[in-house]
Amino acid sequence: METDLRLESSLWVGNKRYLAVLTGWHFKWTEVDKKNRQKKTFSVPVAEVVGVEEGRVEILPQKLVEDTDKDFTVFYVKRSSSGGSYGLLWRLGRTQFSCPSRVLRDQWINHLRSALKTHSPLRPHRLLVFVNPFGGKRKGRQIYHSLVAPLFELAGISSHVIVTERANQARDHLLKKDLTGFDGVVCVGGDGMFSEILHGLIGRTQQEAGLCENDPAVTLQPCPLHIGIIPAGSTDCVCHATVGVIDPVTSALHIIIGDSQPLDVCSVHHASALVRYSVSLVGYGFYGDVLAESEKHRWMGPLRYDYSGTMVYLSNRSYSGVVQYLPADPLLSSPRDKTRCLSGCSVCSRSTEKLFPNTSDSGSLYSSHYSQFSTDSEGEWVSVEGRFRCVSLTCMSSSCARSPLGLSPSAHLADGTGDLILVWDTHPLAFLKFLYRHTSTEDQFDLPFVEVHRVKAVRFSLPGGREEEGHEEIGGSSSRIDEEERARVDAVSRNGSQQHLAERDMRQEVTNEQKTATPFLCGLCCKKAPAVSVWNCDGEILPFTEILCKIHGQLVRLYARGIEDGAAIHNCTVETDECERRRVLNK
Ligand SMILES: CCCCCCCCCCCCC/C=C/[C@@H](O)[C@H](CO)NC(=O)CCCCCCCCCCCCCCC
Ligand SMILES: Nc1ncnc2c1ncn2[C@@H]1O[C@H](COP(=O)(O)OP(=O)(O)OP(=O)(O)O)[C@@H](O)[C@H]1O
Ligand SMILES: [Ca+2]
Description:
3 domains; PH-domain like; Rossmann fold; binds adenosine-5'-triphosphate; binds N-((E,2S,3R)-1,3-dihydroxyoctadec-4-EN-2-yl)palmitamide; alpha+beta; 28% strand; 28% helix; 14 helices; binds calcium ion; 4-stranded antiparallel sheet
């Protein structure tokens, strides 16, 4: 196969002659001068070739084709530095080659296209695209049509585009409509839009597999369709943490070449029923209050979080609670080991082998029966009780523009664990120091009132069982998910949040302990602080306080590859000035 695809000949780019070679995995062209001395080499992995076209073709700013019969154009991924961010920006590179004959030209085109088919098996042919026209700065439609659609067309991808008209339309479509023929689902929007796709695809997959999502002990079936994210939201945390940059063109190119990044998902349960799934933040206290406050100021757009964050900080709240957690194996990794989950992460690869032990292609989506924790004994639950500024659980780093390294900088995308961050009640300035460290490289866990644990499951309750009567047990009895159940959870999600917030405001019980802890600038809101907070689950308010969270390793796959190490750009494919600069810097 490899030898069949091999091709070698002289080609011209402008008036320079190159010796071009296609081996199985790479397409290289080396400049040759008049004395036959070899000069600069350009090399593109076949997996990063976007498309091969006859003639001299341009696609940006608009498509122009000069249909000459001895020329062909190769489009490929070209990397450049992303300025402030940690990941790399991808751009569309293009080189127009001239051949001595039409026969040779056709040979090059056929060989390159066959190599693409052989070496990029996960490239999508047909995609279902949902565009939220109201996400972020309301530019979703424009971003898709001007930046993404032309690239999909160039790569020969056919897309069925749905511009949503209401919240949850994308989720409902994925739960109910025929998805035959689609290789993946793309959302153009923010974390809320991604969450819709996540719920639709996970729900659909479990329905088809006859599995009950309510039972936290059930090993859920991984979703067969990949998810692509074109960032057009306010926080775009999932995109930032899986690609490293917020850039629609970079994300579109990852989708086109069929990159594949598994992702852990946390299921959140209350009283033996599934409430929601999360990949980023399940947060009580500060982050719950910021979200609740920010919902009142949606009109501010992305700025609502900074405004609400400041207001909530000034209101100086803390909450009592009981947190129980099931620690992950400390020998595998630690949230304080100062490593980062980068593209090709070895911790995640080892987890893949553990999660999918019987497949040669570890992580194959089609192995129907595997057990995530079958080789582990469940381990011992640890319990802590007290007053917290915030309790946060994150399955990944949750990096975003506000916090370039994220809530937990050493968390892994696909290791089957989450990081539990407990911030005990403390002086307002100490808490500000903790928050501020999220904006720099200073360790936010190196503070006496902060704890972080790598966990497989977490349970939260109010001291003395103040909230709900029901409680959940991993492995305990659970009801079957049916239409009625789904309607109930739906109704809870739609109406519950408002009702829950209203009840919380009405209660406003302040314990004696709290009275001494909170006055600071409480006059700002002219109200007593409530005794309970709300949970922020990837930007949605949960209608329950007492919850059980369970991490499901690698439940979904994204068209991404994790964050590429910017320092390694000197190993990049096509030589650019940036490669040269980085090479010098790295010496
Ligand atoms: C002094 C500067 C402190 C800056 C502190 C920055 C901490 C930033 C941590 C960001 C964590 C993002 C976690 C991701 C959550 C997403 O799944 C979710 C869905 O999109 N987003 C939110 O819930 C949206 C949550 C957005 C939270 C924003 C919090 C902003 C806090 C600002 C505090 C200012 C205090 C100023 C005092 C004078
Ligand atoms: N046509 C629509 N009308 C109203 N709401 C919609 C529509 N389509 C999707 N939504 C909802 O809008 C919410 C927010 O969208 P999205 O996540 O795209 O942007 P955002 O909130 O600005 O960004 P982020 O989630 O990154 O903070 C989502 O929860 C989604 O369910
Ligand atoms: Ca994880």
